[in-house]
Amino acid sequence: MELKNVVTVRQGEVEIRDIDRLRNMMDNLIYEAVFSEAEKKTALLLLVKEIAKAAGAIPSSIQSLYEEMGRVYPGFTVPAINIRGLTYDVARAIFRKAMEMNVGPFIFEIARSEIGYTKQRPIEYATVVLAAAVREGYAGPVFIQGDHFQLVRKNYLADAKPETDYVKGLIKEAIEAEFYNIDIDTSTIVDIGKETIREQQRNNFEMTAELASHIRAIQPDGVEVSIGGEIGEIGGKNSTPDELRAYLDGFREIFKSSKGLSKLSVQTGTSHGGVVLPDGTLAKVKIDFDTLRTLSDLARKEYSLSGCVQHGASTLPEDAFNMFPETGTSEVHLATGFQNIMYDSNALPAEFRNEVYGFIKQEYAKERKEDQTEEQFIYSTRKKGFGTLKKKWWDLPSHVKEPIMKELEAKFALLFDKLRVTNTVDIVKKTVKPVSVKKEINAGLLLLQ
User: What is the dihedral of CA 306, 310, 313, 318, to 10 degrees?
Assistant: First the structure.
């Protein structure tokens, strides 16, 4: 089956001639794009992304929905999902369940650190997600987000300029790949040694303003990128109203664009990935939901933000998730729990799991802390078992992947229900008007497929 018989390009515009045949071709097409070499890979990814947009899956900003949430909280919390491995299969599972449950707002995201160790540059991540949308017959806005685009503290303190320039470069790469939602995290450079809260937060709000201005300067015409800020470094003490006001007031004084932040990440007691005990099980974590309620209410009433964002939540007990909409949380970030389902599934062959763990023990031995048991080391490091071995994960047979995806779909269904995003398509249709940004492609590639 030849792609040129299914898709045409006229005057730079992609047209779909046969959507059903295109959907059936997508598995092979995205596989070739991801695993081609350098220049061909980039060209193919760009082509697939434009094909997906022509099919109705449009990378979009969630800004206008979050503005509406800042005016009237609609009673749901938007899930933001980080996919570290089997990205195409997992994204397909998310789209399937979202369409089945009539879910409007859901975000695909990847953090600065994940881009590195999962070996998924922004153009690849965005295109794989959009290819999954086409495969499942999804049409509408697709929210793709840069998570924790952060300044690494030790790098910044050693020499601020190259670290800042790196993050600006990453932001530019992400926006070019059509990430129209960016979470800036400069909470890493909060200086708690300063006497006043405002001075403690000064580095944070000044650098957030600088990076936000950079985003506004390079965003495409017609697109208002949704920008998030952060005041509480994950794993530290819980955030306070005084910190929120000091940060947002300082940001507002410096930032001059008409659209500022749409949300604010805070610390309420979680840590990324959870805390693993010596036997490999997870410690129970208690979120301070009163803090989350207070800060979300404050962010909306005084600053017109959508509310506050909770990170590190995927490993919480299932009965905790209904508390996020009850406390007015606007967004919750979910990652490790899905990774755990993949690794711990009975459907994953033991020999493959052992191969991945063997790779981790060999490649990352220096990261093992003296007081860690092997179970703790594996749990904390197995997120790095996806990148180098990406093709082996992707090549797992369908009889292995399908049951794992069923387990993930059940988890997505539970989360969509608990976060109350079922039957929310209408509010997204009302508030979000997708803008298809034209990108140059190599139309000659159609003849080669």
Answer: -50
